[in-house]
Amino acid sequence: AQSVTQLGSHVSVSEGALVLLRCNYSSSVPPYLFWYVQYPNQGLQLLLKYTTGATLVKGINGFEAEFKKSETSFHLTKPSAHMSDAAEYFCAVSAQSSGDKLTFGTGTRLAVRP
Amino acid sequence: EAQVTQNPRYLITVTGKKLTVTCSQNMNHEYMSWYRQDPGLGLRQIYYSMNVEVTDKGDVPEGYKVSRKEKRNFPLILESPSPNQTSLYFCASSPLGNTYEQYFGPGTRLTVT
To answer: Of A5, A72, A79, B13, which sits with the fewest C-beta atoms within 10 Å of its C-beta?
Structure first.
């Protein structure tokens, strides 16, 4: 079974500041890891994913995340926050097998202050 | 345009009145799924379908039904809605070999009074 824990249900940063959203996972098998973003009144969209290979993955809108097996973490970062980054972010995990479901974290709402 | 559509987007109903939320995708995806989103709980899977006529329970199936008679459609049925089913519902789809990379619909906000 897989699970993810997102630390901090709300994060607030100033425009231009570093964004760091934390995600730790638990998985009995090698995981696939994902970050999804939900803008206000919209469905979720995939921001980035780790499946195999390079542990630092880059996504859309300048976001990146690093898979750290020793720390069971997959934190999301962006060097400089923009007002348009305000949204809810979900970390998710899946087993490395076709047809396995996504298990989502409880979400982190990011606010960006002018 | 590749998309997942849901209808209605907003629905207010009363306890016990049967309702159906439709979901349709135009990407020829085999896999479709329903989630509910509640504050502090994230997204929880209700039901999913690997292909036509193949459906299975997710984590929170009680009080819901689904059917998959056509590849593109995956309606969610609440036979007798109750207030604890007030939630934001999302439909999603993906290719069968890539079920972790799902395309989500815009959501249906359901209120049961």
So the answer is: A79
Q: How far is CA B24 from CA A2, B12, B63, B72, B113, in A?
A: 29, 21, 21, 5, 27
Please tell me which of A82-96, B70-84, B99-113 the model is most confident about, judged by mean pLDDT.
Answer: B70-84
Tell if the CB–CB gap between B104 and A34 is shorter than 8 Å: no
- Which amino acid belongs to residue B81? P
What burial class does residue B113 get, using C-beta atoms within 10 Å of its C-beta: 0-12 exposed, 13-18 middle, 19+ buried? exposed
Helices (H) and strands (E) in chain B, counts: 0, 11
pLDDT in tens, A62-80: 999 999 999 999 999 999 9
Burial of A60 (0-12, 13-18, 19+ CB in 10 A): exposed
CB A113 within 8 A of CB A82: no
How close A4 gets to chain B, by Cα (Å)? 11
B45 token code pair: 């899977």
| Measured distance CA(B83)–CA(B8) in Å, rounded | 18
Distance from C-alpha of B28 to C-alpha of B71, rounded to nearest angstrom: 7
Query: In this structure, what are the phi and psi dihedrals at residue B73, rounded to the nearest 5 degrees?
Result: -115, 145
Mean pLDDT of B45-65: 94
